Amino acid sequence: xxxxxxxxxxxxxxxxxxxxxxxxxxxxxxxxxxxxxxxxxxxxxxxxxxxxxxxxxxxxxxxxxxxxxxxxxxxxxxxxxxxxxxxxxxxxxxxxxxxxxxxxxxxxxxxxxxxxxxxxxxxxxxxxxxxxxxxxxxxxxxxxxxxxxxxxxxxxxxxxxxxxxxxxxxxxxxxxxxxxxxxxxxxxxxxxxxxxxxxxxxxxxxxxxxxxxxxxxxxxxxxxxxxxxxxxxxxxxxxxxxxxxxxxxxxxxxxxxxxxxxxxxxxxxxxxxxxxxxxxxxxxxxxxxxxxxxxxxxxxxxxxxxxxxxxxxxxxxxxxxxxxxxxxxxxxxxxxxxxxxxxxxxxxxxxxxxxxxxxxxxxxxxxxxxxxxxxxxxxxxxxxxxxxxxxxxxx
Length: 395
Prior knowledge:
By secondary structure, the chain is of the alpha+beta class. The chain is 40% helix and 13% strand. The protein is elongated.
């Protein structure tokens, strides 16, 4: 009987997973169609702008040639010059004399820029075509890089990237789900834009935090594999300055965040950054490649500096979300009694658990998915596979 229930539950979760993929795939198709249309409009606008420029160049050259001519009885001037002469009430009989005066007055480009350009119909068409191209370009860029058009993009702090605001379709979570039935089906969440660290917090970063603490607090936050130098300063393993710090509890990660003026991302924010609007199966895309991700199959057997795994990156340039180290998130829970759902917690206590997201150098591909989560005690858990990165609200 229990086996039967388990099979039914597995089938239900599989069906829910398919439901999550279907809307994401449909959204991808809509975006792809919009992007294709925008690319066509941009290409057409470029052609029209180029054609308008050629017409403008011909008008410029025709006016320059007419003024530079030496015929005693010049042919009719180009339309731009004729229109200017008429606007000045200059009789046609005097146009030849005016031509000689203009030729002697100075370089032609000064006349063009000062009087003729604003009267040239070709110039007006060129300006309109240029504006159309500008609009087509920005319409295309908003589809290619929506984060650049979000509030706060220009003020993105160094080392961080802007994760765009919007409604994200989050696929059913995988990993630790006991007590979290709401995560076992597709969800749509509306998120404000936020900044996220491009890289995980490094040992060098964390050492600066420790050195800022009073001596009595340093021991509490010392990572598991660190030691003390004779002068009392913290020592991380040799060669690990640019390597993600690990062996740090959730409480220590939260303390660092407060000191740095940042915060841990929520797990919804983490999944949105990892999966994007298209609900990518892995942060690196819809196909997993162990050659790009510091996972078990990669074979490093330890955390690596971000520069060593540049291809484990999202389109926004966030490195190491797939593998390297799992990452603490802001969410805290108290286990429910019996079959009751877990309750959210606002303070850390002996029985509080915290969420980690993503995979590590010791994990298989399924734990490197954008949907993977796990729970550990927030106090005292200092694992070599768990690190963290930070988020910030957009002002």
